[in-house]
Design brief:
Helix content: 10-25%
Strand order of the largest sheet: 16-15-14-13-12-19-20-21
Largest sheet: 8 strands, parallel
Structural class: alpha/beta
Strand content: 15-25%
Shape: globular
Number of domains: 3
Length: 429
């Protein structure tokens, strides 16, 4: 069976690049003006062209429910939502072929795919092509009509049938299946599998792994509670520090400088690319995108990281143990700093100036220390998302503790209560 991609837009292009030309019949789009035209070499047809002989892959996120209703009204049940795949794959800001991001592994002879969807079928086709004995695990969640249309092309088995009879069970669900480990099969999370398969590998970052084993550090935010006196105390005590974004706006008032600078907001980096590149700091961790930043000269103190973005949940958010391969998004640059700090071996990680109490207006001067917004032009900035940041902070606490580290909030005031609190004065004295 081939795919019909519903939605001739950026996510539709992403789907085409992943599936490949041979697997895609054509696009359909609700915009009748697009009918009869071509998009990335594929014809765009009207929605009447949808049929049950192919699999419909729905890519427009905001219109998913409406499109599903239309297909059901037509009696079509062979459809998938593009969004029902690992969130690191459903990344709306990239148009790259999956092969440019992942060198998918197949160093096993047999594999069962647990979790049904278009990405499971994609992996099935890939592994079969690599001569891996592969099957899909049916946990009675697959509609019988779709299963019936796929059985000629795909092999289905129950979980009982594969346990103990395959080398690897690749878990594409968010369920924890550690109970199956030791049953003569390795249970591998799809996220671990993809992380191990990443093409990106920056050898330069390996020199930081365990560099500060057993030491303590401070992650310094840019909140309104941050004071020059506190920064001077950090400098006086020679504390190892991370800091972020436009922290350098406070540099004229203090002798303190962070050991590690981190910025990940794409728009901010684009707007301040030259300014960030010229910061007289020893190490600046910057994502591989935007590419504009890396087209500059004089980047000998910039370290390229692979930041993975997407719509995570509390069940599948990731905390990287392999910063040389990737670091995961958490809707705050502080989460990136936490992953780097744990990677470097710090066991006591203190937070300072991370108030977690912001106005909805990202340009409200009360969100940051005085002078942070002192610019001749407006700098683009990401919106504050408290709910998603909380998910990230809870994950960071859990992951740090699993590595024998602890994160402590030394911010003066603020509203971040995920971590234990300790007075900055008591820590620094």
């Amino acid at each position: 069976m081939k795919y019909i991609i519903w939605g001739a837009g950026q996510r539709g292009k992403r789907a085409l690049h992943i599936l490949g030309d041979e697997r895609v019949a054509f696009f359909v789009d609700a915009d009748s003006n697009k009918a009869g035209t071509f998009y990335n070499g594929k014809e765009i047809k009207g929605i009447d062209a949808c049929n049950g002989d192919n699999i419909i892959l729905i890519t427009p996120l905001e219109a998913e429910e409406e499109i599903v209703r239309i297909l059901k009204d037509k009696g079509i049940k062979n459809y998938f939502l593009f969004s029902e795949c690992p969130w690191v794959i459903d990344w709306r800001e990239t148009e790259e072929d999956l092969g440019e991001e992942y060198n998918l592994q197949y160093d096993f002879k047999s594999c069962a795919l647990l979790g049904f969807g278009w990405f499971a079928l994609y992996l099935y086709d890939f592994l079969k092509q690599k001569e891996v004995e592969v099957c899909l695990v049916d946990q009675n969640e697959i509609p019988w009509e779709m299963k019936g249309s796929l059985e000629g092309e795909y092999k289905f088995k129950s979980l009982d049938e594969v346990t103990g009879h395959v080398e690897v069970i690749l878990n594409l669900t968010d369920d924890n299946l550690t109970r199956l480990d030791g049953e003569d099969a390795k249970v591998l999370s799809i996220y671990d599998y993809l992380e191990e398969s990443m093409v990106f590998h920056n050898e330069e970052i390996l020199k930081f792994k365990g560099l500060h084993q057993g030491e303590r550090c401070f992650i310094v935010g840019t909140g309104p509670s941050l004071t020059v006196n506190d920064l001077n105390m950090l400098a006086y005590n020679n504390e190892k520090c991370f800091s972020v974004n436009r922290i350098y706006k406070i540099f004229p008032k203090t002798m303190w400088r962070p050991d590690y600078y981190v910025a990940v907001d794409t728009c901010m980096i684009e707007d301040l690319a030259r300014e960030i590149a010229e910061l007289p700091l020893e190490y600046k961790f910057i994502p591989s995108k935007p590419k504009l930043y890396w087209m500059q000269d004089g980047l000998n103190t910039s370290v390229k990281i692979n930041r993975i973005r997407g719509e995570y949940s509390d069940k599948n958010i990731r905390f990287s143990q392999n910063a040389e391969r990737c670091i995961y998004n958490g809707e705050t640059v502080v989460y990136i700093c936490m992953q780097l700090a744990v990677y470097m071996g710090f066991k006591e990680i203190y937070l300072l100036g991370i108030d977690f109490h912001y106005s909805a207006d990202v340009y409200d001067t009360s969100n940051h220390f005085e002078g942070y917004h002192n610019y001749y032009k407006e700098i683009r900035a990401a919106q504050f998302n408290a709910e998603r940041q909380l998910i990230a902070y809870k994950k960071a606490k859990e992951a740090a503790e699993a590595c024998g580290a602890r994160i402590v909030n030394a911010t003066r005031g603020g509203m971040l209560e995920v971590f234990e609190r300790k007075s900055f004065d008591a820590i620094i004295s």
